[in-house]
Amino acid sequence: ALGRIAWPTMIAQVAQMGTGVVDTIMAGRYSAVDLAAIAIGYNIWLPLFLLTLGIMLATSVTVAQDFGAGKLQQVRDSLPQALWLAVALGAVVGPLCFNAGPLVALLDLEGVTYEKSLGYLQAVAFGLPATVIFQALRCHTQGLGIMRPFAIASVLGLLANVPLNYMLIYGKWGAPELGATGCGWATAISMWLSPVLIGIYMAINGRMRPYLPPLRPVALNLRMQLDILRLGIPIGLTFFLEMGIFTVIGLMIATLGTSAMAAHQIAYNIWDVVYMLMISVGSATATRVGHAIGSGDHQGISLSVRTGMSLTLLIGLTCASALLLMPGVLIAIYTSEAEIHAIAGSLIRLTALFILLDSLQVASAYVLRAFRDTRYPFLVLCLSYWVLSLPLAWWLGMVRADHAADATAGVWQALIVGMLVSTLFIGMRLYRRLQRLQHDPGVAN
Question: Which residue has the higher pLDDT, 254 or 194?
Fold first, then answer.
């Protein structure tokens, strides 16, 4: 049952990651300046996307519990409210992205890179509202445990992005040659394609029909909006700050030289791929736990938690073992330079430990979200990463270390310390909640 939800989610995550890979490859073959412009722009609009994604994920929690409780009318009523919120958030993040010029100017780029970065961002800005609407629809189906629409829309969006990039970056088939800006427009078009596709699937699929409201205008429900925001804002800020800490760490390591930065990027990329797998299982676990909470099935809650955490830990153990057993093979996929190999070799071992701890942290955090507990994980992340890891990374990497290899390893050691603290605190929170559930079943809701 968990796999039926997790597997399509993994496919969708791979497709969404593939879109960024396609953009990088096709822009890189066009020009180095355009590739740099896209990389800069991507790191500006992605935090906005993650913030809205986290907020909208709150709707999957409420839908899952209402579905488990058999409250079909509340399931139907939640979708229009999620769409109202999506439109409001889109009206904020779109203009923020379009008017990112002052932020880009702070980077002190060369004139042509600045113009291309801004052109890319302004094009993507027209697609960001669509991504929030897509997440509203996706989270509704996710709460029901139906992930196939999400996977199909993501894969078709990836497939559409390739010819759109080719047409608008290179100026083919009668289209203007726009470079990085063309990539931005291709991304924006793909963003609008996704909610259209998932919306069509939901409308024509008979299995979805009982959980959809009639197609008519629905008034804004302030109580439901506040409920979504109370749950969702901590999740969104967690995603936002999680990316932020890696951005700051990356900038710190960049001062250590090209080889250190390349080695860090290899380790980070490996973790990112594994993280994608873990959050797919974590998301599926949260849905299964939410169904059990809604139906009052306390044995089902326990079973879903054990199954989800075991599978997530299994992914962490498998990937960590692969990193420890064949680090050279994995590093060779990225580079053949000896200096990068030497630094990355020590980082790979640290990454293995980081992934193992993260598997427990991800599983625990997603289960807590199913219990509508989102503020505590957010506060723990702020404490462990921003209050503990960041100063420790500066001390171990920038002050205490004598050379780039030790400095880069020191930064990752600081990240591990923060992850260990986060895992312990969130794990203890989940343990106490499950213990309370055994003695007082009413605390599940």
Answer: 194
Tokens of 337: 């330079």
Kindly write down the DSSP assignment for every residue of 289-322, as one continuous string: HHHHHHHT-HHHHHHHHHHHHHHHHHHHHHHHHH
pLDDT band with cut points at 50, 70 and 90 for residue 445: low
Residue 249 CA to residue 391 CA, distance in Å, equals: 11
Give every CB contact of residue 426 below 8 A, 6+ residues apart in sequence.
361, 364, 365, 368, 376, 377, 380
Single-letter residue type at 15? A
Q: Is 302 left (phi over 0), alpha (psi -120 to 50) or beta?
A: alpha
Q: Report H helices in 371-403.
A: 375-381, 390-393
Kindly state the DSSP code that residue 340 receives in the 8-state scheme. Answer: H
Question: Helix, strand, or coil here: 373?
Answer: coil
Cα–Cα distances in Å, from 211 out to 53, 54, 71, 141, 283? 22, 23, 10, 9, 20
Rounded Cα distance between 426 and 348, Å, is 25
For residues 301 and 288, is the Cβ–Cβ distance under 8 A?
A: no
Which amino acid makes up residue 74?
A: Q
How distant, in Å, are the alpha carbons of 37, 44, 52, 109, 254 from that of 112? 9, 18, 31, 8, 23
The closest alpha carbon to 419, from 370, 367, 380, belongs to 380
* 75/63 Cα distance (integer angstroms): 6
Following DSSP, what letter does each residue of 218-256 receive, concatenated?
----HHHHHHHHHHHHHHHHHHHHHHHHHHHHHHHHHTT
Residues 86 and 202: their CA atoms lie apart, in Å, by 17
Could you tell me if 129 and 93 are in contact, meaning their C-beta atoms sit under 8 angstroms apart? yes
The answer to whether the CB of 422 falls within 8 A of the CB of 385 is yes
CA nearest 409: which of 338, 327, 351? 351
Mind listing the pLDDT tens digit for each residue in 267-310? 887 888 888 889 889 999 999 999 999 888 888 999 999 999 99
Tell me the C-alpha distance between 29 and 297, whole Å.
Answer: 55
Closest CA relative to residue 248, chosen from 432, 384, 98, 391: 391
The first and second tokens of residue 425, run together, are 């605190």
Phi-psi region of 215 (alpha: psi -120 to 50; beta: other; left: phi over 0): beta
